[in-house]
Amino acid sequence: MTTLPRKFSRASIVTVLAAAGVFAFALANVVVPSAQAATITYANNVSTPMGVEVSSGLRPKITGSDASVVLGFGTVTVKEYNPAPGYKVHYQATASAAGVARTSHAGAPLTNAYSKCSWKWENVGGNAKLNCSVRG
Amino acid sequence: MKNRTMAATVGVVAFVGLAAVAPATAGSSSAVSLEEMLPILAKSQSSSDHVPDSIDLDALGNISEDTIRFLGSDHAGSYWVGTTASDDVCLVMQTAADPDMAASSCVPIGSFYRDGLRLMAGQGMDQPETNAEAYLFPSDINLPSSDSPVSSARSAGGSGESASFVSGAAGELDDLDAFEVSRDDGTTFHFAPISREGL
User: Alpha-carbon distance B55 to B99, whole Å?
Assistant: First the structure.
């Protein structure tokens, strides 16, 4: 068993290790967000009525969007658009609600635009939980 | 000591609980392999299977590039199938109206076995001519006597190299109707076309 030199008490080592841990945690939280800053989640399990669109709000740059819904059947839709006046949908994808609908257009990013998502299951009402994100 | 006993008991209960749930979960998906559902994935990848450089497979769901297979193309778009590291099945589309745009629909294998894959993408319903629409089915779904809704759609304008795939411009596949197919394993395949109403 290794013994520690007297001048380094167990308490001081624990303190140093704890400080190192805090530093590493802080560093990770600085570095990781900057690497992932491009993706913004704007709906996180948001209970939403069928057909109601949840919007990301104004985004300076959009290169794609994702949308999924906690639902067994039906469809989920994600749209990227400029609002009124001159409302225009630039990119839209509608896919099986059992999975994820994604758009991607890194070569033609939108600027100052919005993303929004919704779900639909015909003849079935109620609410379902939406998960939607936008990439910048 | 009491705490350890408690922790061990909780662990055993959790394990037994998981063991009891796992077969039910597995049973609710499919015993059919992915290659059986999608024989195109069992074929060697060729240069014609690759997506254009403009398509970002990571952004479209971390789709593994070496699993990508070309399904076909038509005047509305080009279409591929691929899988992710977590074995989701993905339908990938590049629209002809805007080749900068790609879209994907990814579902777990079990969902693909039950419902297939559906995807419509473009520049919204205000510009219907920009939208492409595609459906991919497991290979055991026999599309095809000449009067089936899917084969009608194929002959009406859809295209694709796979017998279990149909595609076209949105509006060309309006003849598609919902249908169900009962399988020998007791499961039922459900199909419903994407309704453009309200999109």
Answer: 9
